[in-house]
Amino acid sequence: MSSDTAAGTRPHPHRPAPAPAAAPASASGGAMSGGARPSAAGPAGTGGLMARSGSTAGAAAGPPHGAAEGAQRVAVTGWGRTAPTAARLVRPGSYAEAVAAVRACGRAGARGGIPRGLGRAYGDAAQNAGGAVLDMTALDRIHVIDSANGLLLCDAGVSLHRLMEVLLPLGWFVPVTPGTRHVTVGGAIGADIHGKNHHGAGSFSRHVVRLELLTADGEVRTVERGTPLFDATTGGMGLTGAILTATVRLLPVQTSLMCVDTERTADLDDLLARLTATDHRYRYSVAWIDLLARGASLGRAVLTRGDHAPLDALPARARRAPLSFRPGRLPSTPGLLPEGLLSRRSVGLFNTFWYRRAPRAMTGELQKLSAFFHPLDGLPHWNRIYGRSGFVQYQFVVGHGQEETLRRVVRRVSERRCPSFLAVLKRFGDADPGWLSFPAPGWTLALDVPAGLPGLGAFLDELDEEVVGAGGRVYLAKDARLRPELLAAMYPRLDDFRALRAELDPRGVFTSDLSRRLAL
Amino acid sequence: MKDAFGIPQSLLVLGGTSEIALATARRLIARRTRTVWLAGRPSPALEAAAQELRGRGADVTTVAFDALDCTRHEEVLGKVFAAGGPGGDVDMVLLAFGVLGDQAHDESDPLAAVRVAQTNYTGAVSAGLVCAKALQAQGHGSLVVLSSVAGERARRSNFIYGSSKAGLDAFAQGLGDALHGTGVHVMVVRPGFVHSRMTANREPAPLATTPAAVAAAIEAGLLRRTETVWVPGTLRVLMSALRHVPRPVFRRLPL
């Protein structure tokens, strides 16, 4: 395997290659450029950002140990706010600074580095204790939008939120969006994220044409689809290198509204039956599931499915500005909330309310895009509601035909009375080739649980056994607790991934708490 | 690395035959801990403890370590941290060594009293600082220090031991504050009377507890990154009351 790693990639120092597919865009008339492409080797034009990140990156070149360096470290956690570790936070403002930062990470005793986007991975994927965390969000240029062909070339630090702001008025949408807009393109590729359209559109990487990867040797490689390095990088949790740019295929839309059908299902079997029978009719589909319901209503759910609304579905008033995108947001969640706000009782009440408030069956409802895809983005820092112990997201997938395992897990979570209010069930379509990519055909269930729940660690270990026994896997972007021994059974291409990393990055320049914990 | 619940994958025990330490190690091995270093004076008891933990599925190494030989702490413990290597950091250090001494005898044998103080305080300061430096370099880890309620207020019946634990307790608190924000978490554990070999021929005090209960409290403290753990928890209330009892009264209490 390892001998093919260089196939399809061509290393060249410092300079991200122009993307040939996007180049004709300027000639196509409809093109819009988000800014001139910076030359990485020369001084970048982001002066304001450079001042600060320059000094941080300069520190990275200093001695790897010592009191002065310790003072600059900051505690970093994932979105679940568990297991904080301290790292130097480096924010490259140009490609050249990114290259310098990665070279500094490779020095003896520096304990490596890991790229980080907007920190929405729940666990420790974007943490690196004692080393560097490369905050890639300053590299956030949109280089080319080919609005005739629906192609985008942008820096990996651009958020999907920003892309929506820019793309929607042009009649384009991101190909895949997770439950939050506040993820970067680099993070979306690194975790190979999926959305409500996975059953039809696959995961994010399916829409990535090529990417430019800054690897451990400080070189920038253009990585084409279908090469081993591409498949290792999509879902590779940032461990093959820092993605600098990506060329992404977009989805055309006529409006920024969603046309949504809502149904309430009586129990889990009802839900699975409806998903199996009619999911193919919808572009987007997801079920919110009440994991505290018991007895006859075990696994009752609210199923919401829909598609982008066509222009003629809009009322006359809305047709005047069909592509406007103005998501609202509430004030931020306070920083100090008591532990145990989410008790069985409060979550049980919420779940019952949420289930009852949903219409039994409603078709063709027009919803704002943000309300349909990203309801929680309306409440900034919602992860604080779990208090200081934080929370754990548990997401697994089991194949078609393993419905019995799914039922057992739902029953066990319900019997255990895990106060989970963000539980979603989805039917996945075909898998994508990423070696550590999570989605696989079948059923995925994601649930959130307060980390302080007594005995939770052992309980989730038991669920792992169920999942592995059914040939399933858990999602690394959400993991903060998996037993390392189970990883190889969940990800059969793990050995290939390790071999490629051993060749590409023998000294472990790209290292994270996740990679240390699971020996990736 | 520690998992979301604060459970370490690797554990270094200083005072490898301590019953509280071994009860804690057993509990953590049952969850995630796979690598254990038991540091202590070489003895059949240390080897037996290592063998027992191996039987529970951990990879256990014994390390010759003497709390009184401070000049060698850096070398001995440095080797443990270096052996970890990439991905094999030391996620938790449990500072569990200590001696109770014999108050009645030690009052008339100052050198014996000094030995208690050197083991419980000086040795712990030295080993604690060595470990703190290494943990700080790796940017994460917990340093769990076994203190005692005896250090909370000096008592007529065991003030030599109590004063050494008072010093250790103050040291660990300050160290915890010094390391705040470095990713290193320092936990001070204050058990009451613990039924163990160390207290075998003593009259149990009220609210006596067991090594297993202390281990459970430590596991809970790791999850919440607690800085001070009382075992049992009611001791916190009791001691905050006793702290304010006037000396003439306190002296007469049957403690």
Salient structural properties:
heterodimer; A: 520 residues; alpha+beta; Vanillyl-alcohol Oxidase, Chain A, domain 3; six-stranded antiparallel beta sheet; disordered N terminus; B: alpha/beta; Rossmann fold
Description of the structure:
The complex is a heterodimer of chains A (520) and B (255). With 520 residues, chain A is α+β, with helices and mostly antiparallel strands. Chain A has a domain at 257-490: Vanillyl-alcohol Oxidase, Chain A, domain 3 (3-Layer(aba) Sandwich). Chain A is built from 15 helices and 20 strands. In chain A, the strands form 4 sheets. Chain A has an 8-stranded antiparallel beta sheet with strand order 16-13-15-14-18-19-17-20. The longest helix of chain A has 14 residues, at 47-60. Chain A is globular. The two termini of chain A are 17 Å apart. Residues 1-71 of chain A have low confidence and may be disordered. Chain B has a single domain, classed as Rossmann fold, CATH 3.40.50.720. Chain B is built from 9 helices and 7 strands. Chain B has a 7-stranded parallel beta sheet with strand order 3-2-1-4-5-6-7, with helices on both faces. In chain B, β2, α2 and β3 (59-64) form a beta-alpha-beta unit. The model of chain B has no long low-confidence stretch (mean pLDDT 95). The interface between A and B is medium-sized, with 39 and 25 residues. Chain A: Keywords: Oxidoreductase. Chain A: GO terms for molecular function: D-arabinono-1,4-lactone oxidase activity; FAD binding.
